[in-house]
Amino acid sequence: MGTAATKLQKDQLSEYQELTFLTKQEILLAHKRFNELLDRNERQQLSSRVPMNKICTLPELKSNPFRKRICHVFSTSELKDGSLSFEDFLDLLSAFSDSATLEIKSHYAFRIFDFDDDGTLDSGDLEKLVNCLTGESADTRLSPEEMIQLISNILEESDIDKDGTVNLSEFQHVISRSPDFVSSFKIVL
Amino acid sequence: MCSAAIMRRTYKKKRMMRRMSLFPHRSTLGNLELTRDEIQQEVENDTHELVSELVNLPTRARIQAIRALPMTFHERRYVRGRVMSVKHSKKTDMLPMCCTDCHQQTSLFFRRFSASVATARKRLVIWQDALKEIGGRFGTSVLSYFRFLKWLLMFNIISLLINFCFIAIPQIIHSPNITHTVNFRGLELLTGAGYFNQTVFFYGGYNGEVIVSQPPYNMQLAYFFTIAAYLVLCGVSLIYSMARSFQKNFVLVSGPTYGGAWRLLSSWDFSMVNEKAIQNLKNNLGIQLKETLSERLQRKATVSTSTFVKRLSLYLLAWTLCVGLAVASCTAIYFLQSHQSKLVLPVPWSSDDLGTEASTLILPVVVSLINLIVPLIFSLVNKMEHYTNPRTNIYIGIMRNVLLKISILGILCYYWLKDVPSTIPCWESFVGQSVYRLVLVDFIFCLLGSFFGEFLRNIIGTKCIPSLGVPEFDIATNVLNLIYAQTLAWIGIYFSPLLPIIQVIKLFIIFYLKKVSLSMNCQPPKHTGRAAQMQTVYLALLFFTSFIGALSLVAYTVWSLKPSEQCGPFQGLDTPFQAIHQWMNAVHYIPGSEWAWWFFEHVLRNELFFYLITLIVLILTYFLWQITQGRKQLIRTLREQIVNEGKDKTFLLNRLQSIQKQRRAAAAFGPQEFSERTYFNQNWMNTLPLEM
Question: Which residues of chain A does B688 touch, with a Cβ-Cβ cutoff of 8 Å?
Answer without folding.
Answer: 167
